[in-house]
Amino acid sequence: MTTSPLFYQAGPALPEVSHADGVYLWDEHGNEYLDGCSGAIACNLGHGRTDIRDAMVAQLDRVAFTYRTQFENAPAVALAEALVELTDGALEKVFFVSSGSEAVESALKLARQYFVATGQPQRRRFVSLRPSYHGSTLGALGVTGYQPLEAPFADITSASLKVPGPDFYRHTDADDASHVERVLAETRAAIEAADPGAIIAFVLEPVGGASTGARMLDRRYLEGIRALCDEFGCLLILDEVLTGIGRTGTWFAYQHYGVTPDLLTTAKGLGAGYYPVGAVLAREHIVNAVMESGGFQHGHTYAGNPLACATGLAVLEAIRRERLLANVAERGRRLEAGLKALQARFPWMGDVRGLGLLWGVELVADPRTRTPFPAAENQFARMTALAKEEGLLIYPRRTLDGLAGDHFLVTPPLTIDAQDLEILLARLERALTRLDAEVT
Ligand code: PLP
């Protein structure tokens, strides 16, 4: 038991961070860590950036905080316009928040209020995937499909209808296309059984994040879900809290698939670890209906404050100036090749999947049968500890229900250069070699 008053997690005491620069952090004992997961897939521009600091200090000197119903502020308007432009104008309206959970919570409430405003109050349920992660507040938790987080609160959340998404690693259908077809047919049947007229929205991550080890969807599936939403008259909410702002090599991951949502959430990478800022983007007609009914009955004190939005603007400018989307694509190809080469050496790296600089590795006891390791072995935690000993931070999880077992994410800052990526792969190789000695 630690003596610290903080209680973020059970488990051993953590090293105290000393300082950070670029893709590296150092602890109080001088140990160096390569940030192979951007903290929690948030610190997307790396650490210690003077351009972001300068933009923040300039805004602090002008005005740090104003309340959104008392003043409009230029950084908020500019950031909202910039976000709309990133969607090519497909989503015209923006509501700022301070975290991913708040973004999801706000999207759920906006969608519900839209149907109340337009005379369909009987729509009171969401559909989402199992497994999935959409945040830790009660509404966001209700659409989350991750058993350990859900269990203590199952009786007090308004749980969504949970359906499985495609599983391109384990399915036994003839091919991926027929698998997607079957999953879509089963999804339709589940919604029909639950009453399509009661559904507010389908919520999903276009590429899975922490709880699914970067589970991939594909264009056919997303087109199918979009078509189901249109047919049943419900909305499509894409949760891009983790995938948004360049992580997959496009501004938003949905742009790989050409399927546009009605509402979109984003957060983590927008403040890039320098200040909390998130947003809900929405189609204009949805917002107009809600505003005409008396306004959105929702909001958080710090939402859209000048400092948050100045930070977000500086982040977007850095991504453009440094052509980071191209860097994500190029480094992403090398990361994929590096991970697949490691998989060839260590077959218990059962599945390597991802896009851009969002990669997941699933660990299995038997690669032939794709059987997960026994849960009690905690291989995801062991792998993370070994990587940390080798000076590499990765993001671990185990999904108990649904498609994945032990897995970890490799999601370095979008700024990582060729040399640091080789160092990342070398440290990962050392950690995998040590785990190999334990599991084979
Ligand atoms: N949605 C997704 C897809 C996420 O990955 C996360 C966080 O990991 C959240 C929502 C919640 O974001 P936050 O931790 O900022 O509340």
UniProtKB/TrEMBL annotation:
The keyword Signal does not apply. Pfam families: Aminotran_3 (PF00202). Its cofactor is pyridoxal 5'-phosphate. The keyword Nuclease does not apply. Gene3D superfamilies: Aspartate Aminotransferase, domain 1, Type I PLP-dependent aspartate aminotransferase-like (Major domain). One of its GO terms (molecular function) is pyridoxal phosphate binding. Keywords: Aminotransferase, Pyridoxal phosphate, Transferase. It comes from the Bacteria. Belongs to the class-III pyridoxal-phosphate-dependent aminotransferase family. PANTHER family: AMINOTRANSFERASE, AMINOTRANSFERASE CLASS-III. This is Aspartate aminotransferase family protein.
